[in-house]
Amino acid sequence: MICSGYKVLQVINGSSDAYVHTTRIKKWDVCAGNAILSAVGGQMTTLTGQSLDYSDTQNALNNDGLLATLNEHQKFLNIFSSAFKKRKT
Predict the structure, then answer these.
(1) Which of 10, 51, 77, 81 is the one with CA 20 to 30 A from 41?
(2) Which residues, 6+ apart, have CB-to-CB distance to 43 below 8 Å?
(3) What pTM, to 2 d.p., does this model score?
(4) Where are the beta strands (DSSP E) in the chain?
(5) DSSP string for residues in 33-44
(6) Domains in the chain, please, with CATH?
(7) Residue 36, Cβ neighbours under 10 Å: how many?
(8) What is the pLDDT of residues 27-54, one digit of tens each?
(9) Considering only CA atoms, which of 17, 62, 13, 9 is closest in space to residue 35?
(10) What is the pLDDT of residues 12-26, one digit of tens each?
C-alpha cells in the first residue's frame, strides 16, 4: 500500500496532477503532506472544499474525502466533489 505522504509528494514533483482520496482517512496520515504541500503553494481540502481541521482532538477521522493539488485546485474540486456527493447519498 502506498501511503498518502508519498502520493502528496507525487503531486509536488509533478508526477500527478492531483491526489484524490474518497474513503475515510485519519488526519494524522495526511497532516505532514498537507504541511509540505502548503509550504510549496499547493492546497489540500476535503472533497467538500473545506480545510482539514486538526484542532479537533476528539475526532481523528476525516470522512469527507481528500483532494491535494499543486495547481488548479478549484478545477479538480469541481470535477471530484460532485461525484463524491453522489457517492455519499
Answers:
(1) 81
(2) 37, 68, 69, 73
(3) 0.89
(4) 18-21, 25-26, 43-45, 61-62, 66-69
(5) HHHHHHHTT-EE
(6) 4-88 (3.40.190.80)
(7) 15
(8) 999 999 999 999 999 999 999 999 999 9
(9) 9
(10) 999 999 999 999 999
